[in-house]
Write a structure and sequence with these properties.
The chain has about 130 residues and is α+β, with helices and mostly antiparallel strands. Helices cover about 25% and strands about 35% of the residues. The chain has a single domain, classed as YjbQ-like (Jelly Rolls), CATH 2.60.120. The two termini are about 20 Å apart.
């Protein structure tokens, strides 16, 4: 298993981590199989979406804020209840197929780390299962 670190700069943001993930894939010489990605945080998540236009990440983040606004009207009293809910919506796991050391993505897809309670230093765990 490998770990990458992600430093976030805002309370809420989506950060394209595709190149960080692919650097590990290259270093480890992972070629054909499934790469699992796991975020071990209850107020952060991970997703795959369009990374060609940076406004897509902003749109996702802004609309999650509208859907689940911050506030003091939640039972959870630490002030980050909305972050836990947004993390549940995006999820903390995803996977990608690798063929020839490259991700099997659609034309515009990339991997985003979703921060909902930053800024913080976060981790993403990578576990590769080789095709046999």
């Amino acid at each position: 298993m490998k770990v990458i670190e992600v430093s976030t700069g805002k309370r809420e943001e989506l950060i394209d981590i595709t190149s960080k993930i692919m650097n590990v894939v290259k270093e480890e010489k992972w070629t054909n199989g499934i790469l699992f990605l796991y975020v071990p945080h209850t107020t952060a998540g991970i997703t795959i979406n369009e990374n060609y236009d940076p406004s897509v990440g902003d749109d996702i983040s802004n609309n999650l804020k509208k859907l689940v606004p911050p506030g003091n009207f939640y039972k959870h009293t630490e002030g980050n209840a909305d972050s836990h809910i947004k993390s549940t919506i995006t999820g903390q796991t995803t996977f990608i197929f690798l063929e020839g050391g490259r991700p099997v993505f659609g034309t515009w897809q990339g991997i985003f780390f979703c921060e909902f309670d930053g800024p913080r230093k976060r981790k993403v765990y990578l576990k590769f299962f080789e095709e046999r």
